[in-house]
Amino acid sequence: MNLKALKYFNELYICAYCAYCVNNNAACPTYLSVKHEIVTGRGKMITSRNLADGRLKKEEGLQALSKGLFQCTFCAACEQECMLDIPLTEVYSELKTMVQDYIPFHTKRMFSNLKVNNNFYGLDQEDRSFWASEVESLYNKFVNRKAQVGYFIGCVSSYSARASGAPVSLLKLVEKANEKISVFSPSEYCCGNPYLLGGQPNKALELAKHNIHEIERLGIKTLIISCAGCFRVFTKEYPKIIGKSLPFKVITHMDYIISLIKKNKFKFTNNKSIKVSFKDPCELGRHCGEYEHARELINLLPGIKNCEMENNRENALCCGAGGLVKANYPEIAEDVAEALIQQLEDQNVDYCLNACPACQINIDEHLNRLRSSIRSIDIMEIVLSRIQ
Ligand code: SF4
Ligand code: SF4
């Protein structure tokens, strides 16, 4: 362990211990759950500094730091609030490379699954098209074809039936608009986010190279992504990992559908009134600055009333599932989701709309547990419901 070799070593000494990252606006959601400051921005900065200065014993300090790093949902609320503009999430990512001997069990298991199966579930590559069983003929029409526009689905929506609403709805919308896209589900690998969130960025490089090769092989010039985590990895991490810009443009599924609506590609037939709130995914919002496409899309749909949660856009609350926290510390994911659900209940909405399968699943799981009547779905599902 040589903290002095870190790119962000000096940032450890910039921190003024002011605690803006702990208490302001969206605040640190995990701190509200674990009630121990090791998890906060300030706590991790102090611990790292004490380790570097020899004020903490190595083993004790690294163990504490690992806990703080892996109980953190990577929501970036601390970075948003830091009064000294420290790039905290980048500091955390670098610090994670220092605690590899102390990573939690389920993160290790994800690493071994990724090594063998190229997805963190450890499922077979041939089952990656599991999501498409409901739209088999459409899937066969779009799969592996050469096209200007391609769709990267991501592991969660590919393998989890609870999150297949985004790709299934998107394919149906593409068909209704009489457009053509390429779905390369059989050859898609994980984007590499679990390696990046787990402190092994070098291992994400192989996955990045494979995915970029597949996208270029199919001649794709614009890539649609419906998962906030994949979007962050493609737009912010891949250029850093491969050391150059991507040879294609990356857009969200919301951006793509807005462009089709503006070309009058859909005939809306359902204007039944419903109330919705959009959950800004941390990896799309605070990490990538993508806030307005969701609002624009909702406003283009007939009969939909957008009710903003008290915390929205850059102050949005985390869902609790990010940073691999749900796998390792489900009790934290539960506490954090409950705070968000309270804001959904305050708005008395019918649906929580998502642009991230991890948010969608965690929120829905806890809405069910709390016997709420609100449903958590992908934003594409509400678009499709206005047309059918
Ligand atoms: S990223 Fe989120 S959970 Fe992690 S320390 Fe910052 S505010 Fe807390
Ligand atoms: S807001 Fe920034 S400077 Fe203040 S304690 Fe948090 S990390 Fe340190």
Walk me through the topology.
Elements: H1 9-14, H2 20-23, H3 29-34, H4 41-52, H5 58-70, H6 77-81, H7 88-96, H8 105-117, H9 136-142, E1 149-152, H10 155-159, H11 165-176, E2 182-183, H12 193-198, H13 201-217, E3 222-225, H14 228-242, E4 249-252, H15 253-262, E5 274-278, H16 292-300, E6 304-306, H17 325-328, H18 330-347, E7 351-354, H19 357-369, E8 375-378, H20 379-385
Parallel strand pairs: 1-2, 1-3, 3-4, 5-6, 5-7, 7-8
Helix pairs in contact: 4-5, 11-20, 13-14, 15-16, 18-19
This protein binds iron/sulfur cluster (SF4) (2 copies).
The main sheet comes to:
4 strands, parallel
Give the overall pLDDT as a whole number: 96
Strand content: 5-15%
| Tally of DSSP β-strands | 8
The ligands found in this model are: iron/sulfur cluster
Termini distance? Answer: 58 Å
Q: Could you say how many structural domains there are in total? A: 3
Unreliable sequence segments: none
Describe this structure in words.
- The protein has 20 helices and 8 strands.
- It has 388 residues and is an alpha/beta fold.
- It folds into 3 domains: 3-102, Fumarate Reductase Iron-sulfur Protein, Chain B, domain 2 (Orthogonal Bundle), CATH 1.10.1060; 117-259, Rossmann fold; 268-385, 3-Layer(aba) Sandwich (Rossmann fold).
- Strands 2-1-3-4 form a 4-stranded parallel sheet. Strands 6-5-7-8 form a 4-stranded parallel sheet, with helices on both faces.
- Strand 3 (222-225), helix 14 and strand 4 (249-252) form a beta-alpha-beta unit.
- Helix 11 (165-176) crosses helix 20 and helix 13 (201-217) packs across helix 14.
- The longest helix is centred in the last third of the chain and has 18 residues, at 330-347.
- It binds iron/sulfur cluster (2 copies).
- One iron/sulfur cluster binds next to helix 3 and helix 6.
